[in-house]
Design a protein that fits this description.
Elements lengths: L1 H7 L3 H9 L5 E3 L5 E3 L1 H15 L1
Antiparallel strand pairs: 1-2
């Protein structure tokens, strides 16, 4: 989760909002742990770069 926050430059609450909107994929790692897939982070970055051009 921390890596996704750093890569995207957003807060944890924004990460959860993006997950709820279907823009990022959340996976469970353990009973109380979760993470964001690298593929979904890269895809979000690519979509945002395409919009900027």
């Amino acid at each position: 989760m921390h890596t996704a926050e750093a890569k995207l430059g957003v807060s944890r609450s924004t990460i959860y909002r993006l997950v709820n909107e279907g823009q990022l994929v959340l996976i469970k790692i353990g009973k109380r742990s979760s993470g964001i897939t690298a593929a979904s982070v890269h895809a979000l970055i690519e979509r945002n770069m395409a919009r900027a051009c």
